[in-house]
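User: Let's play a game. I give you a shape written as tokens, and you guess the letters that built it. Ready? Here's round one.
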């Protein structure tokens, strides 16, 4: 190809037109966030033990005398026996009512624990019923599931996972470092001075 042909092909380009590439600055910042400390396995275990004692005491004080009065059997030989059913009703009602109205059972109050929504919000009835009946029923049938609290992120148990809740220690806070990406588009002046390519003949 001749020099004249090269000149002609270049001459077809627009004169002095800047070709600008738009770039965005991407900056990473380490941000310290203060969060409530999640409740670990052992503190939740002892709170649960206290709750069982409370439920057993309620059943012993209220239910047992009624069964004696009416001459009903106190044996729990089958899941459908009257004592088993009534005890179960008191058990689940205790967890549902205390969690809904105070976000704490008796055991959690003693150990300074509180149940919250994933984003810190109060719990609605649907969430509480899902957590305290379905989640707790499954965990009671397969007790090893309770060990999830020791290994899961933020100490989530099965009932926390299915109900989107978290158990925290009141007035106990930790610092957590989090990497955040911030995008700051450059100004037009910066783009003109740094990223412009001009062609001229």
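Assistant: Ready! My guess for every position:
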């Amino acid at each position: 190809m001749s020099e004249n042909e090269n000149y002609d092909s270049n001459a077809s380009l627009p004169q002095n037109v800047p070709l600008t590439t738009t770039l965005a600055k991407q900056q990473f910042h380490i941000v310290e966030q203060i969060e409530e400390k999640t409740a670990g396995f052992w503190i939740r275990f002892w709170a649960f033990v206290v709750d069982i004692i409370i439920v057993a005491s309620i059943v012993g004080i209220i239910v047992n005398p009624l069964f004696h009065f009416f001459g009903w059997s106190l044996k729990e030989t089958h899941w459908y026996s009257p004592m088993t059913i009534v005890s179960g009703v008191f058990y689940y009602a205790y967890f549902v009512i205390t969690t809904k109205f105070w976000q704490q059972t008796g055991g959690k109050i003693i150990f300074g624990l509180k149940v919250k929504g994933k984003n810190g919000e109060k719990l609605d009835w649907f969430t509480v019923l899902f957590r305290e009946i379905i989640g707790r029923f499954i965990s009671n049938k397969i007790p090893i599931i309770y060990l999830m609290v020791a290994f899961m992120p933020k100490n989530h148990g099965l009932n926390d996972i299915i109900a989107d809740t978290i158990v925290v220690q009141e007035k106990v806070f930790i610092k957590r470092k989090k990497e955040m990406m911030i995008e700051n588009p450059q100004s037009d002046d910066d783009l003109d001075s740094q990223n412009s390519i001009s062609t001229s003949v």
